[in-house]
Design goal:
It contains one helix and 16 strands. It is mainly beta and 213 residues long. A hairpin with a 5-residue loop joins strand 15 and strand 16. 20% of the residues are buried.
Length: 213
Protein backbone atom coordinates (compact mmCIF):
# COMPACT_ATOMS: atom_id res chain seq x y z
CA UNK A 1 0.00 0.00 0.00
CA UNK A 2 1.33 3.47 -0.93
CA UNK A 3 1.57 6.10 1.83
CA UNK A 4 -0.60 9.20 1.37
CA UNK A 5 1.88 12.10 1.17
CA UNK A 6 -0.69 14.84 0.84
CA UNK A 7 -0.10 17.72 3.33
CA UNK A 8 -2.27 17.97 6.43
CA UNK A 9 -3.56 21.41 7.42
CA UNK A 10 -4.39 22.23 11.04
CA UNK A 11 -6.73 25.08 11.85
CA UNK A 12 -5.55 27.12 14.84
CA UNK A 13 -8.27 29.16 16.53
CA UNK A 14 -7.22 32.58 17.89
CA UNK A 15 -7.61 33.55 21.52
CA UNK A 16 -10.17 36.10 20.46
CA UNK A 17 -12.39 36.41 17.42
CA UNK A 18 -13.69 39.41 15.54
CA UNK A 19 -17.21 40.38 14.60
CA UNK A 20 -17.94 43.40 12.45
CA UNK A 21 -17.67 45.98 15.23
CA UNK A 22 -15.95 44.32 18.17
CA UNK A 23 -13.46 41.85 19.49
CA UNK A 24 -14.67 39.42 22.13
CA UNK A 25 -12.09 37.64 24.26
CA UNK A 26 -12.98 34.05 25.06
CA UNK A 27 -12.92 34.19 28.87
CA UNK A 28 -12.16 36.60 31.70
CA UNK A 29 -11.62 35.71 35.37
CA UNK A 30 -13.56 37.71 37.96
CA UNK A 31 -10.23 38.68 39.53
CA UNK A 32 -9.31 40.37 36.23
CA UNK A 33 -12.22 42.81 36.44
CA UNK A 34 -11.20 46.45 36.72
CA UNK A 35 -12.88 49.84 36.33
CA UNK A 36 -14.25 50.28 32.77
CA UNK A 37 -13.91 46.56 31.96
CA UNK A 38 -16.91 45.30 29.95
CA UNK A 39 -18.11 41.70 30.26
CA UNK A 40 -21.11 39.45 29.64
CA UNK A 41 -23.19 38.36 32.63
CA UNK A 42 -26.32 36.31 31.91
CA UNK A 43 -25.94 37.29 28.24
CA UNK A 44 -26.10 41.00 29.08
CA UNK A 45 -23.17 43.41 28.55
CA UNK A 46 -22.07 45.24 31.71
CA UNK A 47 -19.41 47.87 32.41
CA UNK A 48 -17.51 47.98 35.73
CA UNK A 49 -17.87 51.34 37.50
CA UNK A 50 -16.21 50.40 40.80
CA UNK A 51 -14.18 47.37 41.81
CA UNK A 52 -13.13 45.97 45.20
CA UNK A 53 -10.98 42.87 45.60
CA UNK A 54 -10.80 41.28 49.09
CA UNK A 55 -8.35 38.45 49.72
CA UNK A 56 -9.66 35.50 51.72
CA UNK A 57 -7.83 32.60 53.34
CA UNK A 58 -6.14 29.84 51.34
CA UNK A 59 -5.77 31.87 48.20
CA UNK A 60 -9.44 32.70 47.73
CA UNK A 61 -10.85 36.13 46.97
CA UNK A 62 -14.12 38.01 47.15
CA UNK A 63 -14.79 40.44 44.30
CA UNK A 64 -17.46 43.11 44.67
CA UNK A 65 -18.28 45.28 41.67
CA UNK A 66 -20.59 48.14 40.88
CA UNK A 67 -21.65 47.69 37.26
CA UNK A 68 -23.80 49.44 34.66
CA UNK A 69 -26.08 47.55 32.29
CA UNK A 70 -24.96 48.90 28.91
CA UNK A 71 -28.41 48.38 27.42
CA UNK A 72 -30.59 49.98 30.12
CA UNK A 73 -28.09 52.11 32.10
CA UNK A 74 -29.30 50.42 35.30
CA UNK A 75 -26.64 50.14 38.03
CA UNK A 76 -26.18 46.94 40.05
CA UNK A 77 -23.89 45.68 42.81
CA UNK A 78 -22.62 42.15 42.15
CA UNK A 79 -20.50 39.73 44.16
CA UNK A 80 -18.18 37.13 42.64
CA UNK A 81 -15.44 34.72 43.66
CA UNK A 82 -12.08 34.43 41.93
CA UNK A 83 -13.32 31.23 40.24
CA UNK A 84 -16.12 32.97 38.34
CA UNK A 85 -15.47 33.46 34.64
CA UNK A 86 -17.08 35.61 31.94
CA UNK A 87 -16.74 36.60 28.31
CA UNK A 88 -15.02 39.96 28.01
CA UNK A 89 -16.66 42.47 25.69
CA UNK A 90 -14.42 44.98 23.93
CA UNK A 91 -16.37 47.87 22.47
CA UNK A 92 -15.29 49.60 19.27
CA UNK A 93 -15.22 53.37 19.07
CA UNK A 94 -16.71 55.22 16.12
CA UNK A 95 -16.60 59.05 15.94
CA UNK A 96 -19.98 60.61 15.19
CA UNK A 97 -21.42 64.11 15.37
CA UNK A 98 -24.20 64.76 17.86
CA UNK A 99 -27.17 66.46 16.18
CA UNK A 100 -30.17 66.74 18.51
CA UNK A 101 -32.50 65.10 21.02
CA UNK A 102 -35.99 64.18 19.85
CA UNK A 103 -38.74 61.90 21.20
CA UNK A 104 -36.45 60.27 23.76
CA UNK A 105 -33.59 59.51 21.36
CA UNK A 106 -30.23 61.15 20.71
CA UNK A 107 -29.42 61.53 17.01
CA UNK A 108 -25.88 61.27 15.67
CA UNK A 109 -24.41 61.49 12.16
CA UNK A 110 -21.49 59.68 10.61
CA UNK A 111 -19.26 62.52 9.24
CA UNK A 112 -18.11 60.34 6.34
CA UNK A 113 -21.28 58.61 5.12
CA UNK A 114 -23.74 61.19 6.57
CA UNK A 115 -25.88 58.29 7.82
CA UNK A 116 -27.81 59.07 10.99
CA UNK A 117 -28.08 56.94 14.10
CA UNK A 118 -30.67 57.18 16.89
CA UNK A 119 -29.67 56.04 20.38
CA UNK A 120 -32.29 55.76 23.11
CA UNK A 121 -31.92 58.15 26.06
CA UNK A 122 -32.57 55.07 28.24
CA UNK A 123 -29.37 53.52 26.88
CA UNK A 124 -27.18 56.60 27.37
CA UNK A 125 -28.63 57.51 30.75
CA UNK A 126 -26.73 60.29 32.53
CA UNK A 127 -24.12 60.43 29.77
CA UNK A 128 -26.59 62.09 27.41
CA UNK A 129 -26.79 65.13 29.68
CA UNK A 130 -23.24 66.11 28.75
CA UNK A 131 -23.74 66.11 24.97
CA UNK A 132 -23.54 69.42 23.10
CA UNK A 133 -25.09 69.88 19.66
CA UNK A 134 -22.53 69.86 16.87
CA UNK A 135 -19.72 68.23 18.84
CA UNK A 136 -18.07 64.97 17.79
CA UNK A 137 -18.06 62.10 20.28
CA UNK A 138 -17.01 58.44 20.17
CA UNK A 139 -19.97 56.05 20.06
CA UNK A 140 -19.23 52.65 21.61
CA UNK A 141 -20.50 49.71 19.56
CA UNK A 142 -20.90 46.03 20.40
CA UNK A 143 -22.07 43.69 17.63
CA UNK A 144 -23.41 46.66 15.61
CA UNK A 145 -25.35 47.88 18.66
CA UNK A 146 -24.64 51.37 20.02
CA UNK A 147 -24.36 51.01 23.79
CA UNK A 148 -22.47 53.97 25.20
CA UNK A 149 -20.53 57.14 24.48
CA UNK A 150 -16.92 57.72 25.48
CA UNK A 151 -16.76 60.78 27.71
CA UNK A 152 -13.90 62.16 29.80
CA UNK A 153 -14.19 61.32 33.54
CA UNK A 154 -15.18 64.91 34.30
CA UNK A 155 -16.28 68.08 32.53
CA UNK A 156 -16.34 71.75 33.48
CA UNK A 157 -19.78 73.40 33.51
CA UNK A 158 -20.95 76.93 34.30
CA UNK A 159 -23.67 77.55 36.89
CA UNK A 160 -26.40 79.83 35.56
CA UNK A 161 -29.08 79.32 38.21
CA UNK A 162 -28.81 78.64 41.96
CA UNK A 163 -29.65 80.20 45.29
CA UNK A 164 -27.16 82.89 46.41
CA UNK A 165 -24.07 81.53 48.14
CA UNK A 166 -23.55 82.37 51.78
CA UNK A 167 -20.43 84.49 52.27
CA UNK A 168 -17.85 82.66 54.34
CA UNK A 169 -19.72 79.35 54.12
CA UNK A 170 -17.15 76.69 53.18
CA UNK A 171 -19.17 73.62 54.19
CA UNK A 172 -18.87 71.05 51.38
CA UNK A 173 -21.25 68.35 52.65
CA UNK A 174 -24.42 70.45 52.30
CA UNK A 175 -25.81 70.94 48.81
CA UNK A 176 -28.34 73.02 46.90
CA UNK A 177 -29.87 72.55 43.41
CA UNK A 178 -28.31 74.36 40.47
CA UNK A 179 -28.73 74.65 36.72
CA UNK A 180 -25.85 74.86 34.24
CA UNK A 181 -25.49 76.82 31.01
CA UNK A 182 -26.31 73.65 29.04
CA UNK A 183 -29.45 72.88 31.06
CA UNK A 184 -27.90 70.23 33.30
CA UNK A 185 -29.45 69.97 36.78
CA UNK A 186 -26.87 69.28 39.48
CA UNK A 187 -26.37 69.72 43.22
CA UNK A 188 -23.55 71.96 44.38
CA UNK A 189 -22.19 73.04 47.80
CA UNK A 190 -23.86 76.02 49.47
CA UNK A 191 -20.86 78.28 48.81
CA UNK A 192 -21.15 78.02 45.00
CA UNK A 193 -22.30 81.14 43.15
CA UNK A 194 -24.11 81.91 39.90
CA UNK A 195 -21.58 82.29 37.07
CA UNK A 196 -19.05 80.01 38.77
CA UNK A 197 -17.51 77.07 36.90
CA UNK A 198 -17.34 73.65 38.54
CA UNK A 199 -16.21 70.12 37.67
CA UNK A 200 -18.86 67.39 37.40
CA UNK A 201 -18.36 63.60 37.26
CA UNK A 202 -19.75 62.41 33.90
CA UNK A 203 -20.43 58.92 35.27
CA UNK A 204 -22.60 60.00 38.19
CA UNK A 205 -23.49 63.63 37.46
CA UNK A 206 -22.11 64.60 40.88
CA UNK A 207 -20.22 67.77 41.79
CA UNK A 208 -16.48 67.22 42.22
CA UNK A 209 -14.84 70.60 42.84
CA UNK A 210 -14.55 74.18 41.68
CA UNK A 211 -12.91 74.42 38.28
CA UNK A 212 -9.21 75.13 38.61
CA UNK A 213 -9.11 73.96 42.21
Amino acid sequence: MRNDSRPVFILLLPLEFKTKNCYIALMLNASDLRNNTCFLYHEVPYKVLKYKHTHLGRGGAHIRVKVKNLRTDNVLHLNFTSNDRFEEVVLEKKPMQYLYLEAGSFYFMDPKSFEQLAVSSKTLGNSGQFLKEGETVDIMFWEDEALDIDLPPSVVVEITECDPGVKGNSVSNMYKPAMTKDGLKIKVPLFCQKGEKVKVDTRTGEYLERAGA
